[in-house]
Design goal:
alpha+beta; 8 helices; 36% strand
Length: 505
């Protein structure tokens, strides 16, 4: 049995009234919550603004008047509504839509023959549902359970944020909200863009397209919406949106672009196929044997695609001939995963499991060495001498793009979909000559705040930072000053010291 990673190295986490400001020279600088906004030292180190998601709802503006109709919920005719309900939810969705249409009709409309036909159709569909419930109860309940679980993050307690995605080349980021809107924000200015559409419901995941200006994919209840936004650097780029949909391939809760931006992979817990889209031609290729997909991660070198199912199975596809290898002897389903920068190491975690696992692909290829998933570290719950408890079942992983830092959040509840540990653990990761990790420090937000979503981002303008969406609906940015990591790796020691704090007045 592995030793607990937290008990092996005694690095104290911040106390309950301390807020993490940044990491500098492998030291984590904190500040008392009641002094945070009046200390000039905080401004000198980090001038990233604090984003209140709830307060931003009234500030956002429509993205462009030239595509105004795309952002207004359009009036659909009778058959369009029925077709949309059938594609998204099948027979139960059609029955629900028929009931909704009936409630909106006046007395004259209810007296028409079309209404009689509608009622007859509704009765037939209800009879089919009842037959399914009676003769195939397991299948019926399984489908409903998948549907509920696929939109589970829309019901997070407290937070109004359900998805976060950074633009791969700029300081822009997209945030998905429970109200089915997506907001485009930036660290460099105070402008906000609002993406809204009648078919953009049940927002579950976001993904920026690499090397394409500002193209954003939004996965949700009806499929995938591709937004084409004007880039501030490219005034000639297209503006608008289009819906990518495929029968039975909804809701879409997992997406990943290929590193070149040519293909988009998408997965749904209710579809047995993994879809590979050619967005330009709006065509797709289904990859069978995948099961209901809950998580997708494309390797940085583009050679492999990780696909986890809602069951205790995941596959890694090689993207040249689209063959795959399957890992099925797992304790539970996979809930988080990330690739190393060279695409040779895959880190992943399982639901209701405090262990961190990894796969090593020799030469970056499948089948080269009979890869076996190995437990890397045990992150069981541990209480430090200052009374702070850290660790537990792993909830989220985020690996910094150069492979030097790994951030981990935890869940200590039976429902492993929500992180309820207030402290984020960070690890120093080394890829060469051998892969290893060691505890580096901890990140904490404001009092009683729980991290819901985490994501590292690196840009030439802002450097490396950890963005965190907290349970109350605000977002913060913790900068990581990693310039001295080369010195640590070269000499094994760090000579420079943390800058002294100016005296508070």
């Amino acid at each position: 049995e592995q030793a607990n990673c937290f008990s092996a190295i005694q690095i104290l986490p911040p106390a309950n009234d301390q807020i993490t400001i940044c990491e500098r020279n492998c030291h984590y600088i904190t500040e008392a919550a009641d002094q945070l906004r009046c200390n000039n030292y905080v401004t000198q180190i980090s001038n990233y603004r604090r984003i209140e998601a709830i307060n931003e709802l009234e500030k956002c503006r429509i993205v462009s008047s030239s595509v105004k109709s795309a952002f207004i919920k359009q009036q659909s005719n009778y058959w369009q509504k029925i077709s949309r309900a059938w594609k998204s939810s099948g027979i139960p969705g059609v029955v629900q839509e028929l009931s909704s249409i009936e409630s909106s009709l006046d007395d004259d409309q209810k007296a028409s023959w079309t209404f009689s036909l509608q009622k007859l159709t509704e009765k037939i569909l209800i009879w089919i549902i009842n037959v399914e419930r009676r003769w195939f109860p397991t299948s019926f309940l399984m489908n409903k359970e998948f549907e509920v679980n696929s939109l589970r993050h829309r019901n997070r307690k407290g937070s109004s944020i359900v998805a976060l995605a950074w633009h791969p080349h700029t300081s822009e980021f997209a945030i998905g909200f429970k109200d089915n809107t997506v907001r485009i924000m930036s660290l460099t200015n105070d402008k906000y863009n609002l993406l809204k559409h009648g078919q953009q419901e049940g927002v579950a995941c976001l993904a920026w397209r690499p090397f394409s200006g500002s193209t954003l994919a939004v996965g949700g209840l009806h499929g995938i919406i591709i937004w084409y936004l004007n880039s501030s650097r490219d005034s000639t780029s297209r503006q608008g949106m289009r819906l990518l949909e495929c029968r039975n391939h909804s809701p879409v809760i997992a997406m990943a672009w290929s590193p070149t931006g040519k293909y988009l992979a998408s997965g749904s817990p209710l579809d047995t196929a993994l879809m590979i889209w050619d967005v330009e031609s709006e065509t797709y290729t289904p990859l069978r044997r995948s099961g209901g997909i809950s998580l997708l991660r494309w390797s940085p070198d583009g050679s492999k695609l990780f696909a986890a199912s809602s069951e205790s199975i995941f596959r890694v596809w090689e993207t040249r001939w689209w063959s795959c290898e399957k890992w099925s002897r797992l304790k539970s389903s996979c809930n988080s995963a990330c690739w190393s920068p060279d695409g040779k190491i895959l880190l992943f975690s399982l639901r209701n499991d405090p262990s961190l696992y990894f796969l090593f692909f020799k030469d970056g290829k499948l089948g080269s060495s009979g890869e076996v998933a190995t437990s890397l570290a045990s992150l069981q719950k541990f209480e430090y001498s200052n009374g702070v408890t850290v660790g537990g079942n792993i909830s989220n992983l985020s690996w910094e793009s150069t492979g030097s830092r790994l951030a981990v959040t935890f869940s200590n509840s039976e429902n492993d979909e929500e992180s309820n540990s207030e402290v984020i653990a960070t690890f120093l990761t080394t890829l060469q000559p051998n892969f290893r990790i060691s505890l580096c420090g901890f990140v904490r937000g404001e009092v009683e705040e729980i991290p819901d979503l985490i994501d590292f981002h690196k840009s030439k303008i802002n450097g490396t930072m950890l963005s965190v969406c907290w349970s109350s609906g605000y977002m913060s940015f913790i900068p990581f000053y990693l310039d001295d990591l080369r010195q640590i790796r070269r000499t094994g020691a760090l000579n420079s010291s943390v800058a002294s704090r100016p005296a508070m007045k």
